[in-house]
Amino acid sequence: MKRESRTVDRSHQDDSPQRHLPLVDLLVDTRAELFELAINSGLRVLTTMLEEDRTALCGVRYAHQRHRDAARAGTVASEVVFGGRKVAIRRPRVRAEGQEVPLPTFRTMAEEDPLNRRVVEQMLVGVATRQYARSLEPIPATVVSRGTSKSAVSRRFVAQTRSQLDAWRSTALDALDLMALLMDGVQIGEHCIVVALGIDHSGGKHALGLWEGSTENAAVCQSLLADLQSRGLRTDRSLLVVLDGSKALHKAVTQTFGTAALIHRCHVHKLRNILEHLPEGQRPWVRAIVARAYKAEVATARRLLQDLARRLEDRHPSAAASVREGLEDTLTILTLGLSDRLRQSLATTNAIESLISRTRHVKRNVKRWRGGQMVLRWTAAAILEAVKGFRRLKGHKDMPKLVAALRARDQHLGLAGSVENVA
To answer: Is residue 345 domain-shared with residue 231, that is, in the same domain?
Structure first.
């Protein structure tokens, strides 16, 4: 049986890529036309809504009303916030008893707050002030707009971030039932910003505040803690304070909280400090012993670390001294009887390090810092942006164990928490 040929005649097929270009151009033109149509339609809808507001106040046009409270007064040039910019429109006017009557729709659309928030969001994701206009969707040439220049964007950013900073630094803290406090600093230009993060009884994270200084010294840290205390942070009962080893932070916490401060030294920072005193060849076995100690019970951990210091004494005395320095503070978390997951979360300053890393990401577009106030505004804006993505601490289901351990410590020391438990 003779098979039919499967050869395809391609002589009439045009494989030139040029045949698709007209369709692409058509789609691009259509997209631009559709967006322009949407803009124009949106403005017409807004105009219709404004006219409906005027009708609700003045009644139907040309209809006789014996008791008319308000009257139409033509239109006036105005602006509304639209697509991240201010757009010019003709606003219908209403007057009653010789005074202008505001239209509800216009009052909402003319607010600058949405525009200020849009500017801050654009800056935080890395858009420079000079590029703000390019980051917005284009509008038809027939629509008059403003508010996208470098200076206008900068003014709005400064105003909004200053308002955010003032509101944040004045927020009361007395309603927070905090169990842990984490503190750390970040160097920005010539300024050091100390940040505080709180963990409540349910494992929720709360950015508490920040303070600015030239270095991370005790005075700066003390000022931050005094500010938190004045806003309602309790210092009369036990609080787990996790630090990175800074002596300035340690001193400030001790002066502010006294015996109520249960200070824990970050395991990651401590291990890093020890390894910096050792040559590369000695680091693996030392790292393994330290990691094993931090997972063991308190007595075992203390023995392992003391034995490690003795082994390092002859050949690496600086490393041995680093192991001994603050040893008991590194074991604090092991004395609380926490679950492994919660212990890992509270044994380091990773939670606040993650928060501070957001500030490093945001500040990359700043070429020159003009004073500490600017540093504070940018840092606060970055932190408040990061707060939106906060999740509860890993191991938060075991937080009752930490609460019980702290309240038992209160009872042992005769602090305020013991009185509350009795009540």
So the answer is: yes
Mapped onto helix, strand or coil, the DSSP state of residue 364 is helix
Examine residue 294 and state whether it is found in any structural domain, yes or no. yes
Q: Is 88 helix (H, G, I), strand (E, B) or coil?
A: strand
Tell me, yes or no, whether 187 and 51 share the same domain.
Answer: no
Q: Which residue's structure tokens are 């499967």?
A: 6
Tell me the mean pLDDT in the region 299-305: 96
- Candidates 183, 210, 184; CA nearest to 199 is 183
Look up residue 228 and give its two tokens. 């938190």
Which pTM value belongs to this model? Answer: 0.72
Alpha-carbon dihedral 346, 351, 353, 359, rounded to 10 degrees:
-160
**Mean pLDDT score, 49-78:** 81
Q: How far, in Å, are 2, 118, 166, 361, 409 from residue 160 at the CA level?
A: 83, 10, 10, 20, 44
Burial of 378 (0-12, 13-18, 19+ CB in 10 A): buried
Q: Which of 218, 288, 228 is nearest to 255 (CA)?
A: 218
Mention every residue, 6+ apart, whose C-beta is less than 8 A from residue 74: 92, 93
Phi, psi of 202 (to 5 degrees): -100, 0
The per-residue pLDDT for range 227-261, each reduced to its tens digit, is 999 999 998 999 999 999 888 899 999 999 999 99
Does 164 share its domain with 196?
Answer: no
Provide the domain limits for residue 262. Answer: 178-422
Number of domains in the chain: 3
360 shares its domain with 218: yes
